[in-house]
Amino acid sequence: MSSPKHSGSSHHSRPSTPMGSPHRSFSSAMMEDNITSAESIINKWNVDSPSVSYTKVTSLFYQDDDRSEALRFISAIKNLQRSMLFFISDRSSPDSHSLIVTAQKLMESAMKRLQKEFHQILSVNRDRLDPESVSARSSLTSLSSLDDPRSDFEDDIGGSDDEIRPGGHSMTESPVPIQAESDLRSIAECMISAGYAKECTKIYRILRRSIVDESLYRLGIERLTASQVHKMDWDLLEIRVRSWIPASKTALRTLFRAERVLCDRVFADAPKLVRESCFAAVSGEPATRMFSFAESVATSKFKKSPEKMFRFLDMYESISDHWEDIQSTFSYESSSAVRSHATSALLKLAEAIRSSLSELESAIQKDTSKSTVPGGGFHPLTRYVMNYLAFLADYSGSLGDILADYPIQVRAPLPESVLHSATSSPTNGYDENLSMRVAWIILVLLCKLDGKAEMYKNVALSYVFLANNLNYGSVWKHRLKSRFWNKAAF
């Protein structure tokens, strides 16, 4: 006989719910209603339906201003997904299998519609990154003269960073309008949560990649292998380089940055790995290709040509000036190859610049011109070297960085006057290296001029020659003081 306590407990215990309980039937009925409701709107926008032709040319998201139809469609898909999960986990209903099959067919139809909408929205807004809106391209006119060693690589136009910019576009702005961006995000979130991430990201990658490739091509960044670059003569290669310099600035400041912003926003609700892989697929190879060109130029047969060094410096600054953009835009681990190529390009360009400087010193020492200047006037070599150094002053910041860890190596100590003047200013380490390098080049020039003075048969005229050229060098030396450093460096 049961105790009263046990008996009472048994009396108040809740009996198990039978399989055919009203509660379970109500849940099942709700899930069936979800499928029925979803079927209505999904079939309305079925892209394969022969009886509904207007949906093939009409956008679900542009059907009305408040996006009410699109919101109903997205909501129906989410309810449909819940119903599928319900009937998969609960096979008590005799119609579970048929309902799952129906729901799956509806889901496939809905995903086809969303794929079409996703592609259409991306396509309609591709003009926001159309490089035809880019203006003020630098002139490609080539000049040359002995007095201006940089003239064959000096832009006719100033070449400022503001000369090239896609219209209506800031660096942190997404390349599509806000509403379209919101629509893309809604579609991406819906497709990915429904298990169609592969289909969604494939559309995004293909379309956005084609836009980036086209943009780079129109900006002037072509697909060139290292072998092709190394076989080019300078006139042809310089055209590519002159085009690459402003194009790379635009790409780093605007194009790639905008793609990163768009990717992060469209896939904001997706796992981070999805955002990373999409951005890498869209921008990774194009950016790597852009930096690879700089690497190829830096390792070309012109890497030891003093006259070509200014183009190397321009390319170096195009990358170094946008280093923060590179690090922030390509911060994903999947974009590490881009950062590696950017670093490699900087290092190789720096090496080419140092080689060109060494070649300049060698060229001065090896100058074999025997003719004397009438009247003991300015020697062309004096003009060339001093003008060359004057143009180098425009790159003093970059040169200081490039020469920071490479102090000048000379066989004998510099003369006390040169050594004192080159180190008299309170400069930091890399300024001192740059100061010493310029002072050394001037000393090499002076020694060469002393030898050329001996070619005059008239001793008095030889002294006139030395006086004129030393005075010319002295005037330029004082000009270089303020251009290279704020205080005297010589």
Automatic annotation (TrEMBL):
<dbReference type="GO" id="GO:0015031">
    <property type="term" value="P:protein transport"/>
</dbReference>
<protein>
    <recommendedName>
        <fullName>Exocyst subunit Exo70 family protein</fullName>
    </recommendedName>
</protein>
<dbReference type="GO" id="GO:0000145">
    <property type="term" value="C:exocyst"/>
</dbReference>
<feature type="region of interest" description="Disordered">
    <location>
        <begin position="1"/>
        <end position="27"/>
    </location>
</feature>
<dbReference type="InterPro" id="IPR004140">
    <property type="entry name" value="Exo70"/>
</dbReference>
<feature type="region of interest" description="Disordered">
    <location>
        <begin position="133"/>
        <end position="175"/>
    </location>
</feature>
<dbReference type="GO" id="GO:0005546">
    <property type="term" value="F:phosphatidylinositol-4,5-bisphosphate binding"/>
</dbReference>
<dbReference type="Pfam" id="PF03081">
    <property type="entry name" value="Exo70_C"/>
</dbReference>
<dbReference type="GO" id="GO:0006887">
    <property type="term" value="P:exocytosis"/>
</dbReference>
<keyword id="KW-0813">Transport</keyword>
<feature type="domain" description="Exocyst complex subunit Exo70 C-terminal">
    <location>
        <begin position="243"/>
        <end position="472"/>
    </location>
</feature>
<comment type="function">
    <text>Component of the exocyst complex.</text>
</comment>
<keyword id="KW-0653">Protein transport</keyword>
<dbReference type="InterPro" id="IPR016159">
    <property type="entry name" value="Cullin_repeat-like_dom_sf"/>
</dbReference>
<dbReference type="Pfam" id="PF20669">
    <property type="entry name" value="Exo70_N"/>
</dbReference>
<feature type="compositionally biased region" description="Low complexity">
    <location>
        <begin position="133"/>
        <end position="146"/>
    </location>
</feature>
<keyword id="KW-0268">Exocytosis</keyword>
<comment type="similarity">
    <text>Belongs to the EXO70 family.</text>
</comment>
<dbReference type="InterPro" id="IPR046364">
    <property type="entry name" value="Exo70_C"/>
</dbReference>
